Amino acid sequence: MSNQNPPPKPESLETRHAVTEKWRCKAMEKKYGWKLKRVEPKNSGFFKFDCVFEGDAEFPDYMEDN
Fold first, then answer.
1. What share of the chain is helix, strand, coil (3-state, %, to 5)?
2. What pLDDT score does 64 carry?
3. Are the CB atoms for 19 and 45 separated by under 8 Å?
4. Which is more confidently placed, 61 or 4?
5. Are 47 and 19 in contact (CB under 8 A)?
6. Is 27 a residue whose pLDDT tops 90?
7. Does the CA dihedral 13-17-21-26 come out positive or negative?
């Protein structure tokens, strides 16, 4: 028997990006076409909020060769 956790189900996958202002979450949603699930306050540091997006919401790699 294995003690490993199963991989997350695709529908439960979330990606977080920290921001300084709440409105930036909606701006990222619009710019990258990601689905914003919620905005969570952070209690420390420069970044005051976490934007929680549905799925794999990673920034494009503009340095990647085509």
1. 20, 25, 55
2. 73
3. no
4. 61
5. yes
6. yes
7. negative
pTM of this prediction? 0.74
- Return the ∠ at Cα 61 (arms to 9 and 17), rounded to 5°: 55
The mean of the pLDDT values for the chain is 88
The strand ranges marked E within the chain are 14-19, 36-41, 49-54
| Helix segments in 20-66, DSSP class H | 23-32
Q: Judge whether residue 17 has pLDDT over 80.
A: yes
CA 35 to chain centre: 9
Those residues whose C-beta lies under 8 Å from the C-beta of residue 33, and which sit 6 or more positions away, are: none
